[in-house]
């Protein structure tokens, strides 16, 4: 079920343009009407955007805006309202999040009405009712004609944009975002579909990770009829990611503490990464490849701390470990990590802070939000152009944070271009000076990094300065 909210009245709030990236606004949409086919739940669950509290109220200077959900009293404080996944479309024009109770909202980005000069416009925001709690979602590339023909083409000749949603009952629903129609369902998983990812090669290939201990590779050009099933995990699979060159995939098991690498060319198991923090009594939560594919980051947590291991996926060598220990046992798990589009930074979501931004190789955080034991963060996603990070919470809300933007050095750009297509073994075989080889293979990162997040908020850098 889809609801398209057209003719929405956008009322921008006042905010200094110097305090936010260009193109990002804070709006309070008042929805004038609901589509006739909306049921009671869809009418009750409406998102609205609100600016952060005034600075004197101890708000976080990095917070751009927060998208909250109006809920009927009968749904307050009940399970099922979590935002398990958020995603920007590949071109950055759309943003989607699972707002709980089986509802997906898709909004046009940027969230700004300045282009319309305050006039009433149809932003094209949509809501989708999936009928089951949504645990994973991902935007796809422009679909092949064989998929596009199953749904109507839009007026302006735009190609359909796909959105995949992974449900609690194991079903994956494929939606056409621009028309609001469900295209087809993918069935086969026997447990929660925890993560979804489309490779960056533009093909209609979808990879899903499930609590049924399997990964499945779906060919959407054939409506998912051609399926590859990858088995090897001994328990729930919590996260998966694909290397930028689409040659390999990584997956992490929640309880089996396995970090597995798979070949996407032969659909076979490559190796299990050993020797990281996850080999202790830790639970794995997330993984992500750097934009050049030369580094794999994995996140894990235990009762005494959380850990991020950086790996060389070609050699299985652990490059570095970032660790944070805390005083209260079991009160600070790490939920999600993601590299920035430039590869210079890593976004981190934990229980005690809504967002951290870390530059691998540095001992201090590049940016971190104020300490908040009730941050309830579950997921994060960078805008494709950088500068903004979206995080989802257990309350079904979404927060947009201003992320640092750094101009990459010429050395970094050269390394990224080279490592995108050249393996570690090929680099080490070149007749280059040792320091250059270490830089190209990321072995110049200190072996042990520790960030003790015990400093008070008064000692933290004011991020607006």
UniProtKB/TrEMBL annotation:
Keywords: Repeat, Ubl conjugation pathway, WD repeat. InterPro entries: SOCS_box (IPR001496), SOCS_box-like_dom_sf (IPR036036), WD40/YVTN_repeat-like_dom_sf (IPR015943), WD40_PAC1 (IPR020472), WD40_repeat_CS (IPR019775), WD40_repeat_dom_sf (IPR036322), WD40_rpt (IPR001680), WSB_SOCS-box_domain (IPR051983). It holds the Pfam family WD40. It comes from Oryzias latipes (Japanese rice fish). WD repeats lie at residues 186-220, 230-272, 334-359, 382-401. One of its GO terms (biological process) is intracellular signal transduction. Pathway: Protein modification; protein ubiquitination. PANTHER family: WD REPEAT AND SOCS BOX-CONTAINING PROTEIN 2, WD40 REPEAT PROTEIN. Residues 407-446 form the SOCS box domain. Residues 1-26 are annotated as: Disordered. This is WD repeat and SOCS box containing 2. PROSITE patterns: SOCS, WD_REPEATS_1, WD_REPEATS_2, WD_REPEATS_REGION. Signal peptide: none annotated.
